[in-house]
Design goal:
about 240 residues; 8 helices; four-stranded parallel sheet; elongated
């Protein structure tokens, strides 16, 4: 039997070039199909009404030391002023031009100073950080699943209003409570009009040291107070 012929130098060079070409070629795997997120949430959604969403949100917020009160469209200013008095607050910061701020300002008692956020931060930084006791902002909506408030800061109610004062009051309409984050984004059309920044607030500011000692107010408000504004009178037994 005759021996196999030895490969020529040209054949070896071609084989080497072919191997190197395959190694250098970019990998182009078939793209994975995108998950059907909407279908997943539709299959796992909770079939519950507004009352159940309110209860889930309340439970999640109260679990992290958030103070929650039920109120009405007509009664929330009086409730807020009673809470301010009970906490011994000297002043309250409101937005520069908001309907709820104006409504509260119209009922301003003599023993409470209501400040409007009407100055640039550079001109009154010391006042904001050292002299403001509390602030009031309006929540855009909330997420019952994780107990989060959704705030979209605006020039009238800047982000600092929810970050700096020691006590943060949040007015939330119960009709805007969503079951989960996906529902909030889809129902409110976030993909078409996402703000410069959106805040998801789950409770007062807190931190812990290496010994796991929990402290509130280290990096923001030490108290978070949520006023659940119902279109109809609050249920019997609700805080007022």
């Amino acid at each position: 039997m005759s021996a196999n012929p030895m490969p020529t130098a040209a054949a070896e060079a071609n084989a080497r070039s072919s191997i190197l070409a395959r190694l250098r070629a970019p990998a182009t795997p078939a793209p994975l199909p995108l998950p059907d997120v909407g279908a997943w949430f539709a299959a796992h959604q909770r079939h519950e009404g507004s009352a159940q969403r309110v209860n889930r949100l309340r439970a999640a917020l109260e679990a992290v030391k958030t103070e929650v009160h039920d109120t009405t469209a007509a009664g929330w200013p009086d409730l807020l002023l009673r809470l301010v008095e009970a906490k011994g607050l000297r002043n309250l910061l409101i937005g520069s031009d908001t309907p709820h701020g104006a409504e509260l300002e119209a009922r301003q008692p003599a023993n409470l100073e209501i400040k409007r956020y009407a100055e640039s931060i550079d001109s009154w930084r010391d006042v904001l950080f050292d002299e403001v006791d509390a602030s009031l902002t309006l929540a855009k909506s909330a997420i019952a699943e994780v107990g989060s408030l959704i705030l979209w800061p605006t020039p009238a109610e800047p982000r600092l209003m929810s970050l700096v004062p020691p006590v943060h009051f949040v007015l939330l309409d119960v009709a805007t409570i969503h079951a989960d984050f996906y529902s909030a984004m889809t129902d409110e059309g976030w993909k078409d009009r996402l703000p410069t920044n959106a805040l998801l607030i789950c409770g007062p500011s807190k931190t812990a040291d290496i010994q796991q000692t929990l402290a509130y107010g280290a990096h923001g408000p030490r108290e978070l107070v949520v006023l659940l504004r119902h279109a109809d009178p609050a249920q019997p037994g609700a805080a007022a």
